[in-house]
Amino acid sequence: MQVLLKTRKARIHPDIESALYSAGQIAARTNALARRINKDYEGRDLVIVGVLKGSFMFLGDLLRRLTVPVEVDFLSLSSYIGERSTEMVRLNFDVRLDLKDRDVLLIDDIVDTGFSLAFARKHILSKEPQDVEVCVLLDKPERRKVLVPVRYTGFVVPDRFVVGYGLDYNERYRELPYIGILKSRRLEP
Ligand code: 5GP
Ligand code: MG
């Protein structure tokens, strides 16, 4: 069963043009980020806040590599219809933990135009934490419109629409264990 699953997942999905980062490459990079975070947050009061839904897989893998004490919460934003960001960001639901005077690490899948993370960061700052840093798996710098200070970045990606490892297109492809470029014929015009 395990072997079958591995074989099926190892084959590239027919809607994917090419794989950008394999599961192994993502794991290695996540390890390196976790090592930095473990060092930077030693003796501190870390709360990880994941931006749903795209960050869930990255957050889970990062979290199991952390050795510092950590609490976890989530918020949900929507800013996105299809493959283009809109500049409208809405808070669907908020964190429940009290973030006052805590060291918050905000985690998202990708920073693209920057609108979502700029909104999330400002929102978290309004809760008067001690500190807020941002960690993203992917950075697409070519499309940035709003500056967001990002402390931890997994990979810098080209200006292509990527899916997999939590990232979706119209809610699909999140389950892929790698990150790949979606074939453009799969994207709505
Ligand atoms: P931003 O506000 O920085 O433009 O991006 C907000 C959100 O758009 C990201 O959190 C992500 O959910 C989505 N997004 C941006 N670029 C991509 C991409 O290449 N692939 C996928 N699947 N989502 C993206
Ligand atoms: Mg997102």
Entry summary:
This protein has 189 residues and is of the alpha/beta class. It has 4 helices and 9 strands; from the N terminus they run H-E-H-E-H-E-E-E-H-E-E-E-E. Helix 3 (56-63) links the parallel strand 2 (46-52) and strand 3 (70-81).
What this model shows, in words?
The chain is 24% helix and 34% strand. With 189 residues, it is of the alpha/beta class. It has one domain (25-158): Rossmann fold. Strands 4-3-2-5-6-7 form a 6-stranded mixed sheet, with helices on both faces. Strands 1-9-8 form a 3-stranded antiparallel sheet. Helix 2 (23-40) crosses helix 3. The N and C termini lie far apart (39 Å). The mean pLDDT is 92. The site of magnesium ion (MG) has 5 residues, from strand 5.
Secondary-structure blueprint of this entry?
Elements: H1 2-10, E1 16-21, H2 23-40, E2 46-52, H3 56-63, E3 70-81, E4 84-93, E5 103-111, H4 115-125, E6 131-139, E7 152-156, E8 162-163, E9 179-182
Helix pairs in contact: 2-3
The protein binds guanosine-5'-monophosphate and magnesium ion.
